[in-house]
Amino acid sequence: MTSIPAARFRIKRKQKTINLERSVSDLSGRAEELEKEVVDLRRENGWLKEIIMLKSNCFAAVANAQQRQALSQAIKDAGIDLGVDRNTTGTSISTSAQRMGEGSSDQEDES
Asked: Could you give the CA distance from residue 64 to residue 52 in angstroms, rounded to a whole number?
């Protein structure tokens, strides 16, 4: 009668071994899938970082252009002329008030 419990034990042990081997196989396959996914995600992450850097540089260039345009408009609104004086190598700066003063002296000369 001892052979029947021993046979049951061997069957249970064999079934447990088969289940463990199946689990190992399933988990090994899942680990490989996850490793491939990690590689793909790292690659995608690198691409996204490049896109962010390119966009950042593009936005910085646009911001710089907008700042230059705003500064140029502010200078125009203030009536400052940043034209280059052709008689000298320096830059002449005149305000609209100076130009108006020049115009008024021309009008006085005409009188």
From this structure: 18
Measured from the Cβ of residue 91, the count of other Cβ atoms closer than 10 Å reads 10
Question: What's the N-to-C CA distance of the chain in angstroms?
Answer: 141
Question: What tokens were used for 109?
Answer: 């000369």
Residues in the chain: 111
Q: Which of 100, 106, 102, 107 is nearest to 79 (CA)?
A: 100
H/E element, 91:
none
**Around 16, how many Cα atoms within 13 Å sit in the side-chain half-sphere?**
6
Q: What is the pLDDT along the chain (111 residues), one digit of tens a residue?
A: 679 999 999 999 999 999 999 999 999 999 999 999 999 999 999 999 998 888 878 777 788 888 888 888 888 888 777 664 444 444 444 444 454 555 544 444 444
Determine contact, residues 66/73, Cβ cutoff 8 Å: no
**pTM of model > 0.90:** no
Q: Are 75 and 82 in contact (CB under 8 A)?
A: yes
